[in-house]
């Protein structure tokens, strides 16, 4: 390779890595800002919002899969051979239930003034994933990770004390994310095709929910062009960050992604304090301090593992 070719290759590589950073950053920023979007739909019932998110998300991802020939072929091949690959389909069903539940809980939190608790769930998600890895895959953990998990657990106890109730929203968000990650780890399908199947599995339930609201004369969709467009747009806003993330992780290291993942809960936390005017008691600040400390330890562990490889 000549010097000019080598220089050109390095420039292209740098541009590819830079675009990867932009894609990943954009994905986490949009995931964080979606809280405001769900709050704007407050007059709509949370179940109807969720149903539209699944339905229109399915329409968008199927359209994308059909436009790209390679994705279309893979999707058709999977559907035709589904009866011979029941294990993969079961894993996708588990992933579909987990991510749908996760989406609903987050929408509910954003529409009912529970942004702080939601941010707690998003913060502890990586540590819950570690616990699942230890339990299911018998992953080894060092002292830093054990300390990080202990700090986060203490933080959750303090939040429970501060809220006066068990933090169901936070733990449901973390657990469903962990289960989703576990199911996806075992799925061999292409990311776009996998998401198409996941939303396809959940779509009949979404349609059933919408039909129920229609029969009860409480369906908001169609009553206003503005609200209806927001509900349709929910599908695109669901798929877009996932596509950006999938594109970005092709060139960005998982360690870097690990640091980026704290952008979303930080945005949600700041949104709860400054946008939704949620009050944060002293004990909750202490709890979040413990959780942030645990995440710092977790990040240092990731960095240490990366440098030792």
TrEMBL record:
Occurrences of domain EamA (ranges): 19-160, 168-299
Membrane topology, record value: Multi-pass membrane protein
Cellular localization per UniProt: Cell membrane
Transmembrane segments: 20-38, 50-68, 89-108, 120-138, 145-161, 167-183, 195-215, 227-245, 257-276, 282-300
Keywords of the record: Cell membrane, Membrane, Transmembrane, Transmembrane helix, Transport
Family annotation (Pfam families): EamA
InterPro entries given in the database record: EamA_dom, EmrE-like, RarD
Keyword Plastid: no
Similarity annotation: Belongs to the EamA transporter family.
NCBIfam families the record matches: rarD
Designated name of the protein: Chloramphenicol-sensitive protein RarD
Source species: Geomicrobium sediminis
